[in-house]
Amino acid sequence: MKDSLAAFLGLAAYAVLSTHDVIVKGLGATFSPIQIVFFSALMGFPIITFYLIGDPTQRRLRPVHPWWVVLRSISGTTSAICAFYAFAVLPLSEAYSFIFATPLLITLFAVPLLGERIRLRRGLAILVGLVGVLIVLRPGVSAINSGHIAALCAAFCAALNAVIVRKISNDEHVVVMVLYPMITNLLVTAFALPFVYVDVKLVDLSLFGLTSLLVLCGMTLMVSAYSRGSAIVVAPMQYSQMIWGSLFGVILFGEWPVWQTYLGVAIIVGSGIYILKREATQDVSRTTPVLSTKTRMGHAVALRVSSLLRLRQDGEAARKDRPE
Q1: How close are the terminal C-alpha atoms of the chain, in Å?
Q2: Most buried of the four, 62, 144, 167, 250, by CB within 10 Å?
Q3: pLDDT tens-digit map of 275-322
């Protein structure tokens, strides 16, 4: 029963995040992804503050692993900008196909960064998934455009970001893990903003605010899902975004994906689910890098489900230790 509720909450979370992506796609027709990331991050600061004031611990904001934190912050900003650009210029279903390849890249990055060992079956699953990516790209048949390159870059940076989080999260305070990427988002995009700035009307400003609110709602639902069910139940719910992406694309943007996109996505999803199940099997994976990645690329607000879960756990522990 708990797993069923967790799966439902996961589905709801990804429906909300898909709505976020639709708004980003609509804004992308007018604004640069740099400007969208800037306003989304700026309006996300109240969200960050809301969660961080619930932190019961008092620790320094100086990172234990400064260079890893810097690399994670830069990769997160790059991933957000590239993902927003891909949402703007590609059909949503096609952009999602590259998002779904992120677990494959996480598994690869886990080898040098986490010391993970990839055995034959997971190695074959990665190769099959990459074949699915090639089917979506169709090199030599259709032109590979800047949107495809941006989507691949977003997936690459998101995977690197996720593995770095897995590597340093036990040593770094939650506030460091959340605050530094958010500051990086703002500083990088603020520096570039004068070169791409377009006047923002009130209706557009409200849409920027709505994207941040949707991230808050989506992350809250995901925290509830992971609090109630196992990662192997909740994580595959991300693939429901293909349904939402296809529906929104057809209804709102008149995007009809070619059949090769669906075939490639089916292969990518199948390999991703297989990797998740293999990691959940005892003695197959020491670090379970994909199962431990409890969030999704493609938003500028630097909230991670794993960080929010830690804040919740720290708060519960502090309440238990508090004298009556």
Answers
A1: 34
A2: 167
A3: 988 888 767 777 788 877 777 766 655 556 666 666 555 555 545 555
- Rg (the chain; Cα; Å): 19
Distance CA 181, CA 303 (A): 9
Which residues does 274 contact at the CB level (< 8 Å), separation at least 6?
A: 121, 122, 125
> Rounded to an integer, what distance in angstroms lies between the CA atom of residue 307 and that of residue 304?
5
Of 239, 305, 267, the residue nearest 11 (C-alpha): 239
Where does the chain have alpha helices with state H? 2-27, 33-52, 66-89, 92-99, 102-114, 120-137, 146-168, 174-196, 202-228, 231-234, 241-253, 259-280, 305-321
Residues in Cβ contact with 9 at an 8 Å cutoff, skipping those fewer than 6 apart: 221, 222, 224, 225, 228, 234
Amino acid at 5: L
* C-beta separation of 174 from 307 below 8 A: yes
Residues 6+ away with beta carbon under 8 Å from 21:
87, 92, 95, 241, 245, 298
C-alpha–C-alpha distance, residues 171 and 303, integer Å? 18
How many C-beta atoms lie closer than 10 Å to residue 195's C-beta?
Answer: 8
What single-letter DSSP state applies at residue 323? -
- The per-residue pLDDT for range 185-211, each reduced to its tens digit, is 889 999 999 999 999 999 999 999 898
The structure tokens listed for 215 are 């991230």
